[in-house]
Amino acid sequence: MSNGNPNLDNLPLSNPNAVEAQLSKPGEQVSVTPEQEKILEQTFKDNRNVDELTITIVAAETGLSEDQAKKWFQHRQALWREKEGLNPNSRSLND
Question: What is the pTM of this model?
């Protein structure tokens, strides 16, 4: 389906309104506004183990890309695990 604008015709179907993806470099933290952080933190407080659907919804609510939202949650999970005395790189409570 073409909208007549060649710059917009090749956008990913998951986000047809995105003009350009602003992906951070590997290892770089995602910068968020205080309003975005409030939404992200509340979601994390409600459920520390977010699924792909939640990431998609939160990304839409905050205006972040799904990759940025996922990266933010991964970083936040590592900080929480470290605070709890767990291995920040582990994905289970048994490690």
Answer: 0.65
